[in-house]
Amino acid sequence: MSDTITKDASAPAGDNSPKATPAKKEKPERVASLWSDAVRDLRRNPLFIIGGVLVLALIVISIVPGWFTDGSPFANGACDLSHSLERPSAEHWFGYDVQGCDIYTRTVWGARNSIIVGILTTTTVTVVGALLGLWAGWKGGVIDSILSRITEIFFSIPTLLGGMLIMSMLPFAGNAYSVSLVMAVLGWPQIFRIMRASVLSNKNNDYVMAARALGAGAGRITFRHILPNAIAPVIVVAAISLGVFIGAEAALSYLGIGVQPPQISWGLMISDAQVRFLAAPHVLLFPAAVLSVTVLAFIMLGDAVRDALDPKLR
Length: 314
Fold this sequence. Notes:
This protein has 314 residues and is an all-alpha fold. The chain contains 11 helices and no strands. It has helices at residues 34-43, 46-63, 103-139, 141-155, 159-169, 176-202, 206-213, 218-230, 232-254, 266-273, 282-309.
């Protein structure tokens, strides 16, 4: 007795092969790299998000302080001695200082000098220190020895003494740009050392040897292969140093060798308020609190970047 074979009605006549199913397209695998992994980690890091929001808000305040207050920050403007040392109220959140100026208004306007000093100093220190460190680490020999000895000389200069000396020689001292220049002159050796050490640890790797074997020139090897792989620790230190430089500007202004009146600085406000702290603590507490939050925000940002760029912490 012969078996009866039932065919699929949807199959064409005479086709006894099983029905073919279309193959599913596989998604291309993600190409992993240090920078792509770092960006992905930063997006999921609450420390980076909180610090980034605070930093963005501070930058906006420093650029357009008029959006956040309509008062005048100067003594010859909307200040009134009849309001001297008045405590905070619903109309004036931070109260008044000894000259009858609104502390909230002066705090908002004081953000500009602090942010300028932080960003300008960090950019200058990073560019100068990284380029010199890249040059010394790649060239080695006499160039490396000379730059390393110069770096040691700068490390031996006390920060405050060096700042006072440089400030006394500048024809435009007493503003945010002169303070940035002083801190950049004294701060680039740290970035130099980090970049030099990173270049020394990367320049003998296999990918550099392969580029040399293929005939790549020194410039291409330096900027296309070594620099992208050696810059990560520099970025981490620069991000953390930004908050440190803002704190240093406040310290210099507090000591009288930084930003000078009639300009506004959180350090100047703290210096003016210290002698009246017991009688009117709000005059000192509010600018000091804003300064602390600003430094903390930048340090949080730097810590998040460090965690994202350090493979050992993954």
